[in-house]
Amino acid sequence: MQADCPRRPQPFAWPYPPFLGFAPLDVWFRLLFRPRAIIPFRYWPRVAVGLLLSMAVTVLTLPERLALALYLRLRGRALDRRPGPVFILGYYRSGTTFLQFLLNCDPNLYSPRWSQTFSPQGFYLSWTFLRFFLTPFYSTARPQDDVAFGPDVPAEDDFALCNGALVSSLVGRHVLPRLRGFYDRFHDLKRLAPDEYTRWRRCQIGFIRKLALLAGGRRILLKTPSHTARLEELAELFGMSAGGPRFIHISREPRAVVRSNLGLHRALNPVLHLQDPISDEEQESRTVAEYLATEQSYLAARSHVPAGWLAEIRLEDLHADPLRELRRVYAELGMPFTEVFGRRVLEYLDVTRDYKPNAHPLGDEERLRRLEPQLAPLVKAFHHDAPAIPKVTPPPPADMAPGHRQARLLTAGLFAAFTGLLCMAGWLVLVFLTGLRLDQLVWPAGIAVGLVTLHVARRGSQGLGFWSALWAVLTQLGAAFLTTWLLAHPAGADFMDLGWNTVYALGSIHVLFWTFMGTATAYRLASKPFIY
Q1: What one-character DSSP code corresponds to residue 140?
Q2: pLDDT over 90 at 354, yes or no
Q3: How far is CA 207 from its chain centroid?
Q4: Is 489 exposed, middle or buried (0-12, 13-18, 19+ CB in 10 A)?
Q5: DSSP secondary-structure letter at 396?
Q6: φ and ψ of 259, to 5 deg
Q7: What is the pLDDT of residues 101-131, one digit of tens each?
Q8: How far is it, in rounded angstroms, from Cα 127 to Cα 140?
């Protein structure tokens, strides 16, 4: 928390692609006109980029959006009778993401990915396309910290509520701060008009039904801090599902939560805002007030939740002994803790053992002391005045020992080469059948090489990434030369002519684009440190 200082609006807001760019055009109409949003001229480039991206995504997802709507309406009741979702509760920056990543290791749970929450109106085909198309362009870490990020990384379903029907407080929090009072109502649902509540309810249930089609018999795992203020509504909404929903509340030392939230706003708002920001002092006041109201709402509602539906955990304890705390929570919720789950948790902890959380500025001591009386009830309610449980270092995964690891890397490298050759063979068969150059197939070839390499290695690396990218290029070069030979053979051509014709074909703009997509995707996939 730093001393308040006035912020001068920049004369030009760089047009970063906004997360709302993946929302359909009807959501943008509501964003700009219901209620009317005053967008200063300096932010118009961001609006233009968002609308252009929205137009493309709208066209891409429209066929599935129309076809699936009727199917979900007919099958919805059956999907609602499946096991209820597992909700992770806790205010922003309380450790909800860390808990979500750990629970995502459970093969009995299914968590939505960023490609799905950014584009909730899509479904299997469009989500798959977006997942791979965005892979070369997304940062591998979130802008506010060093936590993993990407199209296939577990995500907050609040972004699906935002981009699906604009029923989320994210808009006022990070996009239109001057309308925060209007959008904050979607945080706790308390002041919504009947039609607004119905819109939220339909969007929440509709997204879960889509995920249920992909999850099979697995429970849906959802993480959104705003759910903390909706405990009663969620318990009522999903109370009729098989076995009922499950809730896991995670808490963190309150002053650390406030400091981390202010750091979050400083990192995200400059690239997401479509209006001038509020002052640091006002941001702090709003954050503390919402934090207190959210957790107090949860504390008032938790006694009404049936036994066996709710468990609580402290972030400090989860860091100290993750396996013990997860076993305890699963026992309280009546959920099976499997051997596969435990092994996957150990693998994830091993991958992230060197992670260092952000060090946020403490601010002046007077402001910290002023907050202590306000935050004291949360300290007491969640027992943050007691020390964490004893620290236990988790054992390394047995199958990730150096000898096993080297064998897996070598095997993965061989599979990358074999996959590239197999893709080349299929590529040439298609050329023979169609009589067309298909140089853009380097993209699906790169996807195949990267995926196979990652799943064989089970843990990617930069070396595997470069090796997979190399094989994507070699696959393209081999297929392109042989394609030129196949298509020019009847007329006859010597080796040099074939070579120059191949270089000419590969030098066109659209082929260079797909070459980049294939090699970059192969690299990104094979270098991922963990399969989420």
Answers
A1: S
A2: no
A3: 15
A4: exposed
A5: P
A6: -60, -45
A7: 999 999 999 999 999 999 999 999 999 999 9
A8: 19
The candidate with the shortest Cα–Cα distance to 256, out of 170, 169, 379, is: 379
Contacts of 11 (CB under 8 A, 6+ apart): 42
For residue 26, give the 3-state DSSP assignment.
helix
Chain position carrying tokens 């036994």? 307
Backbone angles phi, psi at 25, to 5 degrees: -65, -30
Cis peptide bond prior to 35, omega within 30° of 0: yes
Rounded Cα–Cα distance for residues 456 and 428 (Å):
26
Q: Taking a C-beta distance cutoff of 8 angstroms, is the pair 38, 268 a contact? A: no
* pLDDT tops 90 at residue 334: yes
- 3-state helix/strand/coil string of 160-176: HHHHHHCCCCHHHHHHC
**Domain locations in the chain as residue ranges:** 19-356+364-381, 401-526
The confidence score (pLDDT) of residue 77 equals 66
> 310 has which bridge partners?
247
R_g of the chain, CA atoms, integer Å: 25
Give the CA angle between residues 328, 330, 333 to the nearest 5°: 110
Q: Is 401 exposed, middle or buried (CB count within 10 Å of its CB: 0-12, 13-18, 19+)?
A: exposed
CATH architecture of 19-356+364-381: 3-Layer(aba) Sandwich (3.40)
- Asked whether the whole model's pTM tops 0.85, one would answer yes
Cα–Cα distance measured from residue 49 to residue 5, given in angstroms and rounded to the nearest whole number: 30
Question: 3-state DSSP: the chain helix, strand, coil percent, rounded to 5?
Answer: 65, 5, 30
Distance CA 58, CA 243 (A): 37
| Burial (CB count within 10 angstroms: exposed 0-12, middle 13-18, buried 19+), residue 195 | exposed
Which pair of structure tokens corresponds to residue 354?
């060197």
Q: Show the tokens assigned to 528.
A: 């991922």
3-state secondary structure of 249: strand
Q: Which two tokens stand for residue 81?
A: 């009778």
Quote the CA–CA distance of 349 and 322 in Å, as a whole number: 9
Distance in angstroms (rounded) separating the CA atoms of residues 275 and 267: 16
Spell out the residues 6+ positions from residue 35 whose beta carbon is closer than 8 angstroms to its own: 179, 182
Q: pLDDT digits over 292-321, tens only?
A: 999 999 999 999 999 999 999 999 999 999
Distances (CA, A) of 511 to 172, 442, 480, 484, 504: 42, 9, 11, 15, 10
Distance CA 294, CA 272 (A): 24
Q: What single-letter amino acid sits at 213?
A: L
Query: Whats the size of the chain, residue-wise?
Result: 532
For residue 127, the SS3 value is helix
Tokens of 98: 């860390």
